[in-house]
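>> received
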Amino acid sequence: MLTRKQHELLMFIHERLKESGIPPSFDEMKEALDLASKSGIHRLITALEERGFIRRLPNRARALEVLRLPDSIAPGLNAAKKFSPSVIQGSLGQNNLSRQVKPATPSRAPTPSNDDDAGSAVSIPVMGRIAAGVPIDAIQHQTHSIAVPPDMIAGGEHYALEVKGDSMIEAGIFDGDTVIIRNANTASPGEIVVALVDDEEATLKRFRRKGASIALEAANPAYETRIFGPDRVKVQGKLVGLIRRY
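>> returned
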């Protein structure tokens, strides 16, 4: 499962190889995908390589080989603009950024859980991992479901994410916790949200406003607050609960 940008880059490389037999340069890829810097191309190529779609040939500059294409070209890759939690898994790194992926279906009408000790608990999908730290490479899929108390998810659509990272520890959110998120596209200052930046990066941060700009604030002094223009950030959900296993 590829993100929109990953899909665009893969098809651009594929078409260029078909036409000329030579992979496009990083500058050409950056221009084709309308990215601000070549670092974004590096991240996309790394993600495609990790997922087995391309291979970088050793000891050769600008050498890429397309190993496979997506099983189907899903029209939703370019059209999906509604609720789309970005699920994240991988290892934290200062230069790794997560990316938005194909929309998933959250729990609109939670169903009773079969857990013996759940009682009247309801089940919502766990959509993978989200970075509470520097965003990391994302792939999205429903890994399993989790039973939660019904009063935790009263009203609206909900999904769960497993936390990876330590940037929200002073808000009581630790690596390995599971956060419960209510689907929302707006937030009030001070709320903890799933924020999508530039339609590519997703992270769990506290939402603030700085004049006309939006600030994504960590709850760990080791991480700096990131400031963005209002058109660069989309709220994809708000934290409503947390589950921790000891």
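>> Residues 152 and 241 are 6 Å apart (CA to CA).
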